[in-house]
Amino acid sequence: MHITQLNQECLLHLFSFLDKNSRKNLAKTCHKLLEVFQDPLLWSLLNFHSPVELKKDNFLLGPALKHLSICWYSERVKVCNIEDWMKNNFQKDFCKRHENTVSDFLLDVCNRCPNLLSLTLSGCGHVTDDCILQLLKNCPNLKSLKLENCVRITDHTLKAVTLHGASLQTLHVDFCRNVTQAGLERVREKCPSVMLRAERSANMIPDSKPEKRLMLEKASRKLVQL
């Protein structure tokens, strides 16, 4: 029996074991397999491991998407997640090249994936509060929001959770150093049923405190002089 003689359900099951590139390559072989690739049921779960993957055409976004993960584990993450005033020109240029990649992708998700249930972002240093706000508004069924090492996330995201996260059950803001203890307490007060975790967040030095920036700059200069 040839693979194309299998019914749609069996083909979808087989495709589910393949990565995005393999699915795309197999879809190029014949029209029937292309139809399987384009079936929304195949794309309920998407995992990405670098911003570059978001620009490829080896996946589909649509209402069937339920679970999305963008986890960027790389030395480059450290470059993107340090404060702008600490970056050298090379680091600033590097970050600028992909600054809007993840945010633009998430805005596309807002418009095309209203049934999203879970979102995990790790190392996405350029994602902003406004982006998460739009996602909460457009994906009312979101139950799990996990943010890790996202430097631009602040208490504005926590406020958006209290206003628009009616379905939210789990919220992680680990290593998001610009959220504060006051913001976390507000979530606990307004949304007591949400399982909240904020490992190494509120105790870290926020980027938004200019006086602390100045203090760190002076300390750094003294060390250089020594």
UniProtKB/TrEMBL annotation:
Domain F-box: 9-46
Name of one Pfam family that matches: F-box-like
Top-level division of the source organism's lineage: Eukaryota
Listed InterPro entries: F-box-like_dom_sf, F-box_dom, F-box_LRR-repeat, Leu-rich_rpt_Cys-con_subtyp, LRR_dom_sf
GO cellular component, one term: cytoplasm
Keywords: Ubl conjugation pathway
Name of the featured protein: FXL22 protein
Biological source species: Illadopsis cleaveri (blackcap illadopsis)
Phylogenetic lineage: Eukaryota, Metazoa, Chordata, Craniata, Vertebrata
